[in-house]
Amino acid sequence: MSNSELWVSAEEQNFPVSPDVREFNQEGTSFKIAHVRKISQEILFAPIKEKQKKIIVHHFEKATVPAQNAFLKMLEEPPVYVQFILLTDNLQNVLPTVQSRCVIKHINQQNSKLVNRCPDSLINRFTDQPSYSDLIDLAGQYKERGEAIAFLENLIFTLHAQNAKQPGAKVTKQVQILDRYLKYLKQNTNVLLTLEECFFAIMSSK
To answer: The pTM is what?
Structure first.
């Protein structure tokens, strides 16, 4: 299964600040072969902190046909530590060959908030003392596997950033638990039960 994703959304997307998250074409100008060459150089370097480096390309519908064809070569054989995320508000302007190499996700306004932002209120559920009902309620918000995976991935990024500012063994352990259950989700385990077990494990680790 492809590790590359093509997000279709009419809204701007925000990503965690990390040395292993590299964003391109945020200004939405014409995306040409020169930009592809720059990215091809970027993916030669392994991630610094995370297991995976995320390459985000905004406004991919602005990519010229030659640029998309050149990008296709990277999508076909990416380094194992690289994940490409292409963003567009017009899927028709993305070549079918590029689409075929990606998992296509339609991000609506509600889901984009869930996927791309971890509000303090959610983070506090892990740093405070949540009740069992709080955790069950939180797990119930993510019924789709893709949303649940994206939520855990973003939560891991957020906790990593928090730990960088204020290192602590508790947050490190929480990230390890999240990593473990993220792998379970990707192995097609039951979404609700996996999230509930994950959150209970985090609560028990305090």
So the answer is: 0.55
Distances (CA, A) of 11 to 65, 87, 92, 190: 23, 10, 17, 30
Spatial neighbors of 204 by CB under 8 A, at least 6 apart, are none
Q: Is the per-residue pLDDT at 71 higher than 90?
A: yes
- Domain ranges across the chain: 5-110, 118-204
Per-residue pLDDT tens over the stretch 31-58: 999 999 999 999 999 999 888 899 999 9
More confident residue, 111 or 129: 129
- Pairwise CA distance, residues 82 & 51, whole Å: 9
- Reading the block at residue 76, the tokens are 């076909």
Alpha-carbon gap, residue 185 to 145, rounded angstroms: 7
> If you compute the radius of gyration of the chain from its CA atoms, what whole number of angstroms results?
18
Helix residue ranges, H only, the chain: 33-42, 65-76, 96-100, 109-116, 120-127, 132-140, 145-165, 169-186, 191-204
DSSP tag of 155? H
Distance separating alpha carbons of residues 139 and 137, to the nearest angstrom: 6
Question: 5-110 maps to which CATH number?
Answer: 3.40.50.300
